[in-house]
Amino acid sequence: MTTSLQRVFSGVQSTGNLHLGNYLGAIVKFVELQKSFECLYCVVDLHAITVPQNPTELRNNTREIAAAFLACGIDPKKNIVFNQSQVPEHAELAWVLNCVARIGWLNRMTQFKDKAGKDRENASVGLLDYPVLMAADILIYRATHVPVGDDQKQHLELARDIAQKFNNDFSESISRNSFGEAFFPLPEPLISGPATRVMSLRDGTKKMSKSDISDYSRINLADDADQIAQKVRKAKTDPEPLPSEEKGLEGRPEADNLVGIFAALSGRTKADILSEFGGTNFSNFKNALVDVAVAKLAPITARMREIRADETYVDTILRDGSERARSIARENMNAVKDIVGFLR
Ligand code: AQP
Known about the structure:
Layout (H helix, E strand, L loop, with lengths): L6 E7 L6 H14 L4 E7 H4 L6 H18 L7 E4 L5 H10 L4 H5 L2 H7 L8 H15 L5 E3 L5 H17 L1 H6 L11 E3 L34 H10 L18 H14 L3 H8 L4 H28 L1 H30 L4
């Protein structure tokens, strides 16, 4: 039986417009964690279809996210890089976990409420069930650590509740089948990092998001230097000069967000940045932020384009990763079948 000691799993949806929030909130951490953990990084295309997708764009977006993983420095030999739909055990385990999770738990998920909006009756069942599939993504590998942005905290708590309930519901069968006292580890969210919640450039109270209708709300990893410069210069600010100390950012969400982005991209602290720019107006600061953002992102964007141009290479990485992921997933799914009482 494969042990699940210290295994990292995380995913990014294959929806377009991969942005600075995804990069700083998740991918930067993926790159760091590969130094000390066995990691699986997944393009979660099954999650993407919880809202309508054009099939050609979905394929393109899956390759685009995989290219971004590689361009940001994820090593596909050392780690398993794959797309979710090539490993059917994700969906298979999700069904079992659907029968463990409670409807009341899902009804409390704020992301569903936000995404379904007022037209809740018309949302797909998949959108409501999204967190159960996410729990299955993690638990099928018996992963112990999950690097995510702050917005995924509630979903991770749900994954832990589902794992715990499965372990309790089937405790007798788990020990009878010699899997010890608990089969699923309770996955730890890894939410710390340079920027756990990057906000919209148009509204500092809203999360930077792929689905925001305004492209000016986010910096995309595919943006060139001119686009980055335009977006930063047009970013919403307030009329006051920048404060000299962090405390002065309270109640100023746009200023706080831009200083946070500067800090995360440059590896400096917010205090250090404010000691340089405090008391000045935003235009100097924004020019410096453009320089920092372009210096950091331009090489990634160029590398992403290069990788993306070689479709066969990207598809081979994903196919190879999926086979490696599947060999772990299949073994764990067989164990789940034995625990639950399915003949095989
Ligand atoms: N604004 C953000 N700040 C920090 N981290 C973020 N993440 C997303 N937005 C931010 C983190 O990126 C990872 C991948 O996200 P995803 O693609 O799986 O899904 P998402 O959270 O739905 O991304 P978006 O941009 O917010 O898409 P929409 O617009 O569809 O809602 C996750 O670890 C996430 O926390």
